[in-house]
Write a structure and sequence with these properties.
The chain is α+β, with helices and mostly antiparallel strands and 187 residues long. The chain has two domains: 96 residues, Topoisomerase I, Chain A, domain 4 (Orthogonal Bundle); 71 residues, Gyrase A, domain 2. Helices cover 54% and strands 16% of the residues. The chain contains four helices and six strands; from the N terminus they run αββββαββαα. The chain has a four-stranded antiparallel beta sheet, covered by helices on one side. It has a two-stranded antiparallel ribbon with strand order 1-2. Strand 5 and strand 6 form a beta hairpin. The chain is elongated.
Length: 187
């Protein structure tokens, strides 16, 4: 009956890739002492009645290694952008110059580096949970197929395949966060 069962491991892999991509986006928002436009990606501004990413209300530039500037297109939004940055938890104090908001990136002290390392670890744990949830989805499909008449050998094969895929992505999460934590701790 269920000899035709084939788990879509490509789909499972794509979904796990999505968890890794999301982790990378979250990690890119953590500042490492160097200026980067991507550190502002998670910051949302209350513009025109909805929450909008900063890069949709102004131009984000990195004119020098320790400075990010945002040229806000609408003068009325300058205060809201400044407020969003202050409340974002990035630990940056914006300076206004007309419609340009300058963000000087201070050196990170040891305590702040450790905090950011912990935040990176939390992001990684979220990615691991996502990968494990996808593993569970795959295992549930296998269990359903087993109930529909799949042989025990096939069940073991597919369970091993899903577990190998899960192990591969958990290892990738660990490597990604380890690299970011080293970057954060670099003085």
């Amino acid at each position: 009956m269920s000899d035709d069962f084939e788990l879509d491991t490509d789909d499972l892999g794509r979904r796990m890739d999505g968890a890794i991509a999301n982790l990378r986006v979250e990690l890119s928002s953590l500042r490492t002492g160097r200026a980067s436009g991507s550190m502002l990606e998670p910051v949302m501004v209350d513009a025109y009645g909805s929450m909008t990413p900063i890069n949709q209300v102004g131009t984000v530039n990195v004119p020098e290694p320790r400075m990010v500037t945002i040229n806000v297109w609408d003068k009325a939004l300058v205060g809201k952008v400044e407020k969003a940055i202050r409340e974002s938890g990035l630990g940056i104090n914006p300076q206004l110059n007309g419609t340009i908001i300058m963000l000087p990136i201070p050196e990170l002290n040891e305590e702040r580096r450790r905090e950011l390392g912990k935040v990176a670890g939390n992001y990684a744990e979220g990615a691991r949970v996502s990968v494990r949830n996808l593993r569970r989805d795959g295992m549930d499909q296998i269990k359903k197929a087993k109930n529909d008449g799949m042989s025990e050998d096939d069940q073991k094969f597919w369970e091993q395949t899903v577990q190998e895929l899960t192990d591969k992505y958990i290892k990738l999460v660990d490597e990604t966060v380890e690299t970011k934590q080293e970057e954060i701790m670099q003085v």
